[in-house]
Amino acid sequence: MDIDENIIIDWAMKYHQACLTDNDQQALEKWLDENKEHVHLFNKYRKLYCQSRSVAFIDTVNREQAWSNISSALQNKSRRLLPKWTYQVAAIFIIVLGVGYFLRNEISTANHQVSGFEQIAEIGTRRAILTFADGRKQALEEDNEQVFDEKDGTLIIKDSTNSLMYSKEKPANKQILYNEIKVPRGGEYSLHLADGTQVWLNADSKLRYPVQFKGKQRLVYLEGEACFDVAHNGEMPFIISANDSKVKVLGTKFNISAYKDQAYVATTLVRGSVQVDYLSDNILLKPGEQSVVVKGKDGIAINEVDPSIYTAWVHGVFEFEKKDLGSIMTQLGRWYNVNFFFTEPQLKQIKFTGAIHRNESINYAIELIESITDLKFKIKGENIIIEK
User: Fold this and answer.
1) Top-confidence range, 175-179, 340-344, 361-365, 370-374
2) Residue 248, domain member (yes or no)
3) Which residue(s) pair with 354 in the sheet?
4) Distance (Å, whole) CA 360 – CA 339
5) pLDDT digits over 318-336, tens only?
6) Burial class of residue 53, CB neighbours in 10 A (0-12, 13-18, 19+)
7) Which of 47-51, 105-109, 328-332 has the least mean pLDDT?
8) Where are the beta strands (DSSP E) in 141-295?
9) Can you point out the beta strands (E) in 46-154?
10) CATH number of 255's domain
């Protein structure tokens, strides 16, 4: 089947933004199944798109000067960034990819004294602790196949990628059994619940859920951050309880950030619709909208956002848009399992836009920030200090 190249590019972009429609998904899978060359080509576009999102940080304070420097450098370098086969998509990706290339080059040639941070801050890995209904605990760290069973007969399968899947058995036990997945700082994990719902858990997060769903609703409890792709069931709504708020859906994809140490709960809708309940208020979200409830305050705020920014972590990318440095360091701290401290509170308010891969060392992120600001990072004991 001949497919226009622009359609393939669109598929690659939507794939990483987690917003493929059902029709897109079916057409893509059919095209990929035709031959290995299609798979190879699609992976090239995916890789290029992912590179284009890794643009490094652009400090909004120094944005004008930074862009002036980048623009002049790109005049001579941009045509050398991509292999010949990618020139057809250069118009889409060249600007962003060029920014990332330029800043990487500047970092590699600058005389930075950034070193040693990786000794106290390792890159996160896929790992978690599974707690069974009877209190048994199982470490989920190795990329090997294992099978566990609950006392109601449900099989829990861990595949070779270290991801869990619950079997859709009809248990003899009428009692609702709960399992819990706890992801530590420096970790991430994914699983398929018994109803077919897929869940991605970010670092320092916890999910409590029934082994098998029964009754009139599918209720789970979240602490931290998770992305849900909920299996549709019109007769049994899926409900996430997170702090004092609840998100109710029938079948959709969305992200929830509900860490205990943050003052708000944010729900970002990718597709479908969700209802957010908080105290006496409730609202219905549309795709591209984000609800924010602040602990201890009445009301639900609604913002129009790019959902891909808030789900980029699922695809291995930190992405920020006009995000304050304090929030960025909190996210990086969870992933690299390290604590950051600011010598001056106002430094937390510096705004950044950009992205980095989660598989980059923490040295890379620190070098990026130091290269475009007058900030300095240094190690003190087991912590990292940020100062002017």
Assistant:
1) 340-344
2) yes
3) 57, 320
4) 18
5) 888 888 899 999 999 999 9
6) buried
7) 105-109
8) 146-149, 155-158, 164-166, 178-183, 187-192, 198-201, 205-210, 218-229, 238-242, 245-249, 253-258, 264-271, 274-278, 281-285, 289-294
9) 56-59, 125-126, 128-131, 137-140, 146-149
10) 2.60.120.1440
Q: How far apart are CA 253 and CA 22, in angstroms?
A: 12
Whether the CB-CB separation of 198 and 166 falls below 8 Å is answered with no
Instruction: Take residue 250 and report the two structure tokens written for it.
Output: 């029938």
What number of residues does the chain have? Answer: 388
Calpha distance 328→318 (Å, rounded): 9
pTM of the model: 0.74
Question: Bridge partners of 97?
Answer: none
Task: Please tell me the distance from the alpha carbon of residue 310 to that of residue 318, in angstroms, as a whole number.
Answer: 9
Range of the domain at 272: 125-309
Number of domains, the chain: 1
Tell me, yes or no, whether 201 lies in a domain.
yes
> Per-residue pLDDT for 247 more than 70?
yes
Residue 12 sits at φ, ψ, to 5 deg, of -60, -45
- How far is residue 348's CA from residue 61's CA, in Å, rounded to a whole number? 13
CB 256, CB 265: distance < 8 Å: yes
| 375 found inside a domain | no
Whether 274 contacts 247, CB under 8 Å: yes
pLDDT digits (tens, 9 = 90+) for 304-318: 998 988 998 998 888
Question: How far apart are the C-alpha atoms of 79 and 206, rounded to whole Å?
Answer: 46
Q: Would you state the structure tokens that stand for residue 230, as one six-digit string?
A: 């909920």
